Amino acid sequence: MTAAVLLLAAAVQAAPVSAPAIPDNPAKLVFKPLAYTPPRAADHRVVLKNGMVVFIAEDPTLPLVEIAVTVRTGSYLDPAGHEALAALTGSLLRNGGTRTLTAEQLDERLDYLAARVETSIGETAGTATLNCLAENLDDSLKLFVEMLKEPRFQEDRLALAREQALQEMSRRNDDPEDIERREWNVLLYGEGRASNRFTTEASVRSVSRADLVAFHDRYFHPAGMIAAVSGAFSRPEMIRKLEAAFAGWPGARPEVPPVPSEVSPAAPGLYRIEKQVPQGRVSIGLPAVKRDSPDIYALEVMNEILGGSGFVSRITRTVRSNEGLAYSAGSALRFGIYYPGAFRALFQSKSRTVAWAAQLVMDEIKKMREEPVTAEELDTIERSLIETFPGNFESKAKTVALFAADEYTGRDPSFWATYRDRIQAVTAADVQRVARQYVPPEKLLVLVVGDQKEIDVGDGKHAVALAALAPGGHVVTLPLRDPMTMKLP
Amino acid sequence: MRVLRAIVALVFVAAAAAPRPRIEVTEVTLGNGMRWLLFPRHDAPTVSAGWVAHVGSVNEREGITGISHLFEHMMFKGTRTIGTRDIAADLRIIEEQEKVRELMRSELKVMRERLRRGEIDDLLKPENQTARYRELETQFDDLVAKQRDVIVKDQLDQIYTRNGGEELNAFTTEDFTAYFVRLPSNRLELWAWLESDRLINPVFREFYSERDVVFEERRMRTESTPLGKFDEAFNALFWEAHPYKWPVVGWPSDIPAITKVQADEYFGTYYAPNNLTGILVGDFDPALARPLIERYFGRIPRGAKEPPEVVTFEPAQLGEKRFNAEAETSPTVRVWWHAVPFVHRDRTPLDLLSDLLTGRTGRLYKSLVLGRPIANEVEASVDLKKYAGAFQVEAVVKEGKDPAAVEAAIHEEIRRLQDEPVPAEEMQKVKNQGKAQAFRRLSSPFSILIQLLYYDGLGDWKYINSYADEVDATTAADIQRVARAYLTKENRTVGVFLRKEAAPAPPPAPPAPPGDGTR
Q1: Chain A environment of B44 (Cβ under 8 Å)
Q2: Which end of chain B has fewer CB atoms < 10 Å from its terminal CB, N or C?
Q3: CA distances from B199 to B137, B300, B466 (A)
Q4: Does residue A1 register a pLDDT over 50?
Q5: Full residue range of the structural domain in which residue B160 is found
Q6: What is the least distance, in Å, from the CA of A434 to any CA of chain B?
Q7: How far apart are CA A144 and CA A126, in angstroms?
Q8: CB < 8 Å to B428, chain A
Q9: B425 with B485, same domain?
Q10: How do residues A4-18 score in pLDDT, each as one tens digit?
Q11: Residue A2 has pLDDT above 50, yes or no
């Protein structure tokens, strides 16, 4: 069984030719400069005859091909009362067979070919991915396109998907992390926002096969798709294959309504949810900006210094490294594409130290607004963002996927070319200005999921009560939703 | 002493035309016993670099469980150069801190005795601590505050971050502890400097606050998740003699009892170069990297004695063990069988056996989820560790269906594999999938680094290259043989988890699967 492996053992003499001495401090090391020019989207972009946009890159490293298709659709298009339609369509596309193949036959064929095919429809996009051996490309691509074009949506598989969805729903209140994530989004954007229109037992049961067929007919057309294609192939040949595979699709470019942009955040305040666990989970933050804001560079640097860069950032240092109050403590900043993203500081700490740790986070937020960051902090973060920039393009698959996402969301094509200069231009005054503008303490939402009674006991060392931290003095106790109806009791 | 002994491990004879998953790694051993795996690949201008210490929770004992993992955290706390403005003052304060801690430990003995007598309930609650303990804690906190004037917080992270380091992290398993980072390719010497420095001159400052951090990690992963504590208890039931029985993160009583002296001792025994493997993957020139490695890591003195061998073998299990519990989750059935260590020659037949059962076209899915249907999810896998392993099946029971029926159906599928040879086409299907998966694992330099750290940690990185051959060599008879040898009734432990809260549940009648059904 190991016959094909030969090991050659050889003794090799190292040549210790007067090696340079090891400096006593790493600051004395000198590095050769490293120039890096990012790839350009235009060099990879091809438009097929049917209108489908393809970003393509040859990558002979491994004998694999990856085709990732983004479809212009999303669960924001679910009709009221049918809040599982997009998600079930996304799942049944892969799991429900094709016109010529039953679900069982499709699964067997793909598994025998060792082709990995997955599909899903999320809030603002649908995705379908094929990853296969280059030697099986023709067979795999044929199945993949047939699935996208003529799905069978087999009834028994829909029944199974419904049951799986309902059982998953029944676990919605089991893990405190799930409760926190869900309710945080409701606080940020309001219950009416597409991302928060929950699936319920009734909505899952309401979706029929005919609904899936209609949803698919309406949104799935090559002219509404963008593909990222990479792997072991020759570019002209792959383009020929894609032209042939996606040709002759019935229908026309779908009319897709835009993603709604309005949000309705909850009133600033402290929101408490009871869950019997030994550790409280805390989120502190508010909606921020869309990514077309000119302030995104200063905001990114601000967040990295405040809590976004692990041990280098202030919240992690204070809450975790200095005080030992949490394993995970930091902050995240998301820029929105269709509606404002959000700033969120978060940590988990044993019940009795929740209030003290929350106080420390609040103090760090205030400090960002009151004092300029140090030159060293600014320099560290700017160097980091600039030096790690090539990582965005570390593989061909990642590069074309990024270009496809930019095309789908209409990002300014100059973004990557100018990113490093814009980061470099951020000053300490910019950081302080955006902290003041976008993270006002009195506007914050604070969510605490945990053993509320034990949290109120406090750590016995620091005179801080959680309620005293409530922005605007506003404290709300939220009950858990019924997991199947999502109604509050 | 400054001589490199090299084993060049490449040269594959292309047995068939089809490409095979393999990486041409150069293996080097330094004079002090530190092994190196070097794999240049020039996808992007970065180097993924790491090293693995061949120590994990398997090397622990009761009382210090969790020390390997706590130790992993301590390796980020600096050295005599990194993390301090005044090393002399720093070490003096640490010494003073240790004296206070010694006194606190005497108080802890008193508190533990009270706990045994039932006078208090939890050592960590301030109201249960002695007045003297609390007073000493205040003294200790003052020393921590004093130390902050001389230390440079998290300087290792600072330096890496400024220099474009990403993914700086580490993880601990039962068998090994791995440290890694991805850097711009012109910073390789910086990596060699910082990593060799922390292997030669570590200073375990902020030991006790980091111990608290680790306890919060345990609270997060184990104590606040629906199945965390149940997983831990089930694992402890499965292993009887083997040190795999305690959790990597450590028992809750042990983590807060670990001392700095124990950590120092641990470092001396297990972090010697002869117990380490360094790994570089990515954009570097081996001709330049090798002298660099020799210069920086060759200076670390070999350990005074070899780390002790793990000698325990799990005794053969005498009968089926069962764990019935109620948890905040959907009803779940879990079956584990004792299998083999990772280096065992049956590893790939067992791996393919699990592939035959799992996935969309796996036998368990087709039978339990699609056919009968009595489950909504099912998965089979192997967990082969360095010294022993397990074959595992887990199913989520459909609402309203009987967990006993699910368990019986699992055993029936296993019995079918024991009784009838797998048809050729089905064998070929899992072989095709296995080989494609092996290529996918090599998709980026960073993921190759993680693979190398992982498999070297398990004792055989060459598995990455031999896997395809092992798959080809596996026959339907091998599958039948391993199914019969390992998946027996007396060799299994069964867990049945019902949803907690439901109305008065009838006593879970242990399902009696017919015959010797293993699943």
Answers
A1: 390-391, 393-395
A2: N
A3: 31, 8, 32
A4: no
A5: 26-83+153-305
A6: 23
A7: 15
A8: 112
A9: yes
A10: 333 333 333 344 446
A11: no
Q: How far apart (Å, rounded) are the C-alpha atoms in residues B203 and A37?
A: 40
Q: Which residue from A279, A278, A263, A280 is spatially nearest to A447, judged by alpha carbons? A: A280
Residue B19: its pLDDT value, please? 79
Residues 366-425 of chain B whose Cβ lies under 8 A from any Cβ of chain A: 369-370, 373, 376-377, 396, 398-399, 425
Superfamily of domain A41-245 in the CATH hierarchy: Metalloenzyme, LuxS/M16 peptidase-like (3.30.830.10)
Identify all chain B residues contacting A176, using CB atoms and an 8 Å cutoff: 224
Q: Which of B122, B161, B368, B470 to mutate to test the interface with A (most CBs of A within 10 A)?
A: B161
Q: Give me the average pLDDT of each 10-residue run along chain B (519 residues).
A: 32 48 95 97 92 98 96 96 97 97 96 96 90 96 95 96 96 98 97 98 94 93 95 98 97 93 92 98 96 97 94 97 97 98 98 97 98 97 98 97 98 98 98 95 94 97 96 97 98 97 47 39
CA distances from A220 to A56, A71, A124, A293, A415 (A): 21, 7, 14, 32, 29
Packing angle of the helix pair B476-486, B347-357 (nearest 10 deg): 90
Alpha helices by DSSP H, B420-444: 424-440
Rounded average pLDDT over A14-35: 81
- For chain A, helix (H) and strand (E) counts, in that order, are 16, 13
Same domain, yes or no: B416 and B332: yes
Query: Among A321, A374, A400, A423, which would you mutate to test the B interface (most chain B Cβ atoms within 10 Å of its Cβ)?
Result: A321
Do B167 and B192 lie in a common domain?
Answer: yes
Q: What angle do CA A78, A104, A157 make, to 5 degrees?
A: 30
Kindly state the helix (H) or strand (E) to which residue B246 belongs, with its residue range: none
Residues of A within 8 A of B440 (CB-CB) are: 62, 64, 116, 131
Residue B125: its pLDDT value, please?
Answer: 87
Residue A394 pLDDT grade (very low, low, confident, very high; cuts 50, 70, 90): confident
Q: How many CA atoms lie within 13 A of B434 on its CB side?
A: 27
Query: Both B295 and B338 in a single domain?
Result: no
Of the two residues A190 and A252, the one the predictor is more confident about is A190
Task: Tell me the C-alpha distance between A358 and A284, whole Å.
Answer: 9
Q: pLDDT value at position A252?
A: 83
Q: What's the pLDDT score for residue A253?
A: 86
Task: Please say which residue of B262, B277, B305 terminates a domain.
Answer: B305
Q: Report the largest interatomic distance among the alpha carbons of chain A, rounded to a whole angstrom.
A: 78
**pLDDT reported for residue B64:** 96
pLDDT at A197: 87
Contact (CB, 8 A) for B442 and B427: no
Identify the CA nearest to A93 among candidates A76, A110, A114: A110
The tokens for B435 are 């080989």
Q: Produce one character per residue of A282-313: b if its CB has 16 or more CB atoms within 10 Å, e if not.
A: bbbbbbbbebebebbbbbbbbbbbbbbbbbbb
Global pTM reads 0.92
Whether B93 and B236 share a structural domain: no
Does A276 touch chain B if contact means CB atoms closer than 8 Å? no
> What is the model's pLDDT at position A18?
60
The verdict on B351 and B486 lying in the same domain is yes
As to burial, measured by CB atoms within 10 angstroms (0-12 exposed, 13-18 middle, 19+ buried), residue B288 is exposed
CA distance B192 to B201: 14
Per the prediction, chain A carries an average pLDDT of 94
A390 touches chain B (CB under 8 A): yes
| Torsion angles phi and psi, residue B325, rounded to 5 | -150, 165
Helix or strand or coil: residue A249? Answer: coil
Class of domain A269-406+415-473: alpha beta
Q: Which residues have a Cβ under 8 Å from the Cβ of A139 and sit 6 or more positions away? A: A109, A113, A115
| Residue among B153, B162, B225 minimizing CB distance to A380 | B162
CA distances from A282 to A184, A324, A459 (A): 10, 16, 16
